[in-house]
Every structure is written in structure tokens, then in C-alpha cells.
Amino acid sequence: YDAKRVIKVFKKNVDLAKKEQKVKFFISIKSQLPQNVIGPEEIVTVNGSFVGYAMRKLVNSEDLHMLTKTKYLTAARLSNQDVLQIITDLGLHLGKLHSTGVIVGDVSDFNFQMNGKSDYFIDVDSWGIEGKFQPDAYTELFTCPDSYMANGSINFSKENENYNFAVLAFNMLTRIHPFGGTYLPDKNLSTLERMKRKISIVGRYKGDIKIPKIIGSWKWISPQLEKDFIEIF
Fold it and tell me: What is the DSSP secondary-structure string of 117-130?
């Protein structure tokens, strides 16, 4: 829209009435959200009808996914410790959002942005609020297996979302998904099925999993943090 703002316009197949209600709510609690939340600031209408919202413009930002790219880390001069700091800050900010009743829903490497060592939350209109709104999106490879209900719906909760964040954190710190690699006893077993069965690349099954040679060592991670990951996965 201008040098400091962009406008998000929803597609016609979106439930605009529901989106408008949610966007207005997030505008009303804007002052309660961390400064690194790039959320709705003003309703946008066309001929009096809601079409989207205006928000701050991020300049020179990248998807969090770039932390898994060695060339990017080298060019940006980001060390393992820098990545750990970015992920730690993201976790702390996620905790603050949880304390306000927010459930992000889609905790994944393409749903957060960073600029240097600063993290940013985006796609706020897809978030949920406990007891008020359900999140509108999720990414299977970052979703806790306990989230899937028998009726096909998703159980969004802070507890399950903490698991999702652990998957994200491990992926960013080691540059491989915690259920990545090749499970040698059954090479056709999907990542989602391995998540359900807790066959991760850490813990008791690690000897049965072949890790690509391009993945470096994660021995720099503290023993306590690795132990925590093992307990989670």
C-alpha cells in the first residue's frame, strides 16, 4: 500500500464473514501482542465490503526455513549459537502468545519470518483463540500426532503446539526433521507414520535410521537439550 504497509486480500472462496470477525478481534488486542507480531492493523473494504486488512511491511525478511540452508547461514554469518538464539526467542514469544490464549495452529518453517537474528510472526488471521476461534491452518509434518481426532478434525491445544514447536526447533538446529532420514527396517514407512510410532532419529531407533551425509553433526547441542528432544519424540 505504501512504504510501511502491505494489504492482504482474501480469496473469494474464504469465509469472509468469519475472517472479518477474527481480524477485528486481533485489531482490538493489537496492544497486547508482542511487537514482532505482523498482524492486522486496519480493515480494508471495497465498496463497503470487507476484503482484507493492512499490516506492517517487512523488508529484507526471510522464511525461517532458510536456517536449514548451509549457504544461507554462511552468507548471513549465522553461527549454530545464533540459530539457537533465534529459536529460543521464537519459543519465548510463542509462550507469551499462549499466555494470551493464542494458538498459532500452523507452526512450521514457512510460517515465521526472520530479519537478521530477529523473528517475526505472520499469517495472524489463521490463528485461533482459546474458547473463541479455531486456527484455520496446520502443516502435517510439524503437527503433533495426538492432534488428529477419530472424526478427522484437529485438536488444537497449547500442549500439542509445544510439540509442534519442538519439531520446528530440532529441524532448524540440526537441519533435518526429527523423523527424517531413511528407516532401514521399513523404507516405505511414511514420516507421518513414524511420528505416530515415535521412530525418530534420536533415541532408541537412531541406529536403524540412515542420515544423509549432507547433514552435519549436532553434537554441539547440549546433552540436556538432546535429552529433552529424545523425551519429546
Answer: TEEEE--GGG-EET
Which residues, in sequence order, are CB contacts of 152 under 8 Å at separation 6+? none
Helix segments in 100-190, DSSP class H: 158-174
Pairing of strands 112-115, 118-121: antiparallel
List the one residue out of 134, 164, 127 whose CA is nearest residue 146: 164
What does the alpha-carbon distance between residue 8 and residue 52 come to, in Å, rounded to a whole number? 5
Q: State the burial class of residue 160 (Cβ atoms within 10 Å of its Cβ: 0-12, 13-18, 19+).
A: buried
Nearest residue to 136 (alpha-carbon basis) of 9, 17, 22, 11: 22
Total-model pTM: 0.94
DSSP code for 100: T
Q: Report the C-alpha gap between 93 and 37 in whole angstroms.
A: 9
Q: What is the pLDDT of residues 136-156, one digit of tens each?
A: 999 999 999 999 999 989 999
C-alpha cell at 111: 510460517
For residue 69, give every residue at least 6 positions away whose Cβ sits within 8 Å of its Cβ, in sequence order, or none: 175
Distance CA 85, CA 20 (A): 35
* C-alpha grid cell, residue 165: 514447536
Cα separations in angstroms, 7 against 31, 57, 212: 20, 9, 41
Given the C-alpha cell 486488512, which residue does it identify? 53
